[in-house]
Inverse folding.
């Protein structure tokens, strides 16, 4: 009997390890599937429908969630014992999506999967990943109904000991140790390898109102476990068709083009933090005629940071 005991123990251990692996993978897949279902429901909900009510049993919310709402419906406006306003249903799914994303990020199988290929990005969710797959950004359209197209942003660095999490079960605010990533999310993350470290370029865009558009870019690096901003540039413009901020990862260059207006009043190839010093008058006089300027800046990475290598401006021809 003793001669078979090691083999028996090995088989038993193998059996339990495989059960654990299967359960872990199953829980991860369940989170992915749930999130995709929530996103599908979320895509069809409007923030303007505050008076339209939907049956809780037909809402698509999880059964446990529905039961909780039926029990505590009197505590909230926009709820009844059996139904919920479309706007509040939107908020419920928003909270479920954000909560699930934090669970997915914290899951032990997160780095074994390319989540950007598993989670639907057909409408309201965007996922961008750095080249080294260490820095992630998830941004969800907040759907507030206003002209400011705000997004709920979750940025995760795989080297962190504590992933992003919710402030509380009832408060979907994201707690993240890296405050430099606060905002409306990013549409691109690129690595720059130097002799000393890995740096990241993050680009972003948001519609601030019906006629104001904001572009931003920043270069960040890790310092004692926290990301710090080494370079940043941003513009607000009413003419997005005239340019923006473009980063070329192959040449490590930043090209900025814009036309002056009341949001960005003059041509300044400065970091975004300094742009509050620009003049109020965005036109210059040509006799009695006022004209805007077309501005250009080019920055190039010099091995440790971006430096300005070209700047120019010209009058906008009518």
């Amino acid at each position: 009997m003793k001669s078979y005991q090691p083999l028996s123990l090995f088989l038993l251990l193998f059996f339990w390890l495989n059960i654990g692996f299967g359960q872990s993978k199953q829980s991860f897949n369940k989170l992915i599937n749930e999130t995709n279902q929530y996103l599908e429901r979320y895509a069809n909900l409007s923030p303007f429908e505050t008076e339209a009510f939907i049956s809780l049993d037909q809402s698509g919310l999880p059964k446990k969630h529905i039961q909780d709402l039926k029990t505590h419906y009197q505590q909230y406006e926009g709820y009844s014992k059996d139904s919920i306003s479309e706007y509040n249903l939107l908020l419920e799914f928003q909270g479920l999506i954000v909560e699930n994303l934090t669970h997915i990020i914290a899951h032990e199988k997160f780095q074994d999967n390319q989540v950007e290929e598993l989670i639907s990005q057909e409408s309201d969710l965007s996922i961008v990943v750095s080249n080294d797959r260490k820095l992630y950004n998830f941004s969800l359209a907040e759907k507030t109904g206003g002209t400011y197209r705000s997004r709920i942003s979750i940025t995760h660095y795989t080297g962190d000991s504590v992933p992003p999490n919710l402030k509380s079960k009832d408060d979907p605010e994201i707690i993240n140790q890296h405050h430099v990533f606060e905002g409306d999310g990013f549409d691109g993350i690129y690595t720059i390898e130097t002799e000393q470290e890995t740096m990241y370029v993050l680009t972003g865009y948001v519609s601030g109102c019906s006629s104001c558009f904001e572009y931003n870019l920043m270069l960040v690096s890790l310092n004692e476990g926290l990301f710090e901003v080494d370079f940043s540039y941003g513009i607000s413009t009413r003419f997005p068709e005239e340019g923006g901020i473009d980063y070329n990862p192959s040449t490590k260059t930043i090209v900025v083009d814009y036309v002056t207006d009341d949001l960005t009043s003059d041509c300044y190839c400065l970091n975004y933090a300094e742009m509050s010093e620009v003049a109020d008058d965005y036109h210059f006089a040509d006799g009695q005629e006022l004209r805007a300027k077309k501005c250009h800046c080019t920055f190039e990475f010099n091995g440790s940071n971006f430096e300005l290598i070209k700047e120019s401006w010209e009058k906008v021809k009518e």
